[in-house]
Amino acid sequence: MLSRNPMSDVKRGHILNVLSRGVRTDGRKFDEFREITVETGIVESAEGSARLRLGNTEVIVGIKMEVGEPFADSPDKGVLTTNVELIPMASDDFESGPPSPSAIELSRVVDRGIRESQLIDMSALCITPKEEVWVLYIDVYPLDYDGNLFDAASLAAISALKHTVVPAKRYGKGENYQLPLRSVPVSCTTVKIGDRLIVDPTLEEEDVSSARLTVATDENGDIRAMQKGGTGYFTLDEVRTAIKMSVAAGSTIRNKL
């Protein structure tokens, strides 16, 4: 996903050699995610928040809500905005300033997975059609980057949303209530290294990969969103394999969430 300095030929050769033996440098199977831990309610000023660790990758997400106007083409639906800030603390490759192409892509992938899965009942966030709706902001901040920000950010956002309370009382709109959620999507990112496919790549694995495919699936195993990245390609059979790996991983991760 993110550009880094080229790895040494020795390191690159080592990773490819280990993969050729059917294992990964950290001992995981090709279709195995790193350990996932989640803490929620960590930001008192937010309507919902979560800190998620995926191996050594760490992301914090905050949810804020306010009353605003609906868009003209969806007068009876709430508004969703997703923002990602790649702060220098998380990686030497991140710089302060306007959103980078990587930050924009990451925010779009997280947003699309949530939006296309219809996780949030946007109609339920309408207060008065054409006049007032709830505007929901998802702010994503990676704290430590060791690969696979797509899945870490998406899972952190979903965890925060699941614990979000609509601040109705603050705006004189009645009592507070839990954010109405529906189908829960799970994002799974697969990368191609040589002719092998692996899920949840570490930073070193990302560096030697040629192509990336992120697939968000729902409880029924239906595809809700996809995003291809990298300069390489996937064959049709490889796409099918990546989707199967995503469905299987989604089922396991969804139970943990």
- The number of domains: 1
Give the N-terminus to C-terminus distance in angstroms.
25 Å
Q: Which outline best applies? A: elongated
Order of helices and strands: HEEEEHEEHEEEEHEEH
CATH architectural arrangement: 2-Layer Sandwich
Q: Runs with pLDDT <50, length 5+? A: none
Number of distinct beta strands: 12
CATH superfamily: GHMP Kinase, N-terminal domain
CATH topology: Ribosomal Protein S5, domain 2
Helix content: 25-40%
Radius of gyration: 19 Å
* Category by helix and strand content: alpha+beta
User: Which whole number gives the mean pLDDT?
Assistant: 93
Number of contiguous helices: 5
Which CATH C-level class is it?
Alpha Beta
Structure in words:
- The protein has 257 residues and is of the alpha+beta class.
- It has one domain: GHMP Kinase, N-terminal domain (Ribosomal Protein S5, domain 2), CATH 3.30.230.70.
- It contains 5 helices and 12 strands.
- Helix 2 packs across helix 3 (149-162).
- The longest helix is centred in the C-terminal third of the chain and has 21 residues, at 236-256.
- It is elongated and about 60 Å long.
- The model has no long low-confidence stretch (mean pLDDT 93).
